[in-house]
Amino acid sequence: MRPDINYNPQNKDLEIGGLSAAAIAEKFGTPCYVYSANAIQARLKTLQRALGAAGIGERTTICFACKANDRLGVLAEIAALGGGADIVSGGELKKTMSAGIPPEKIVYSGVGKSREELQSALDAGILQINVENGQELKLISEIAKSAKAHKPHGTGISLRYTPNISSDTHHKTATGHTENKFGLSEHAVTTLARTAKEAPHLRMQAISIHIGSQIVNLDNYDTAFQKLRALVDKLAEEGITLSHIDLGGGMGISYGRGTEIDIEAYTRLIARHFGDTDHKLIIEPGRYLVAEAGVLIGKVLYTKERASKAFAILDAGMDALMRPALYDSWHDIVPLHAPDKDAPLKTYDIAGPICETGDIFGNARTLPELRPGDRLAVLDTGAYGATMSNRYNARPSIPEILVKDGACRLIVQPPSIDDIIDAERKLVFESRVKT
Question: Residues with catalytic annotation?
Answer without folding.
Answer: 355
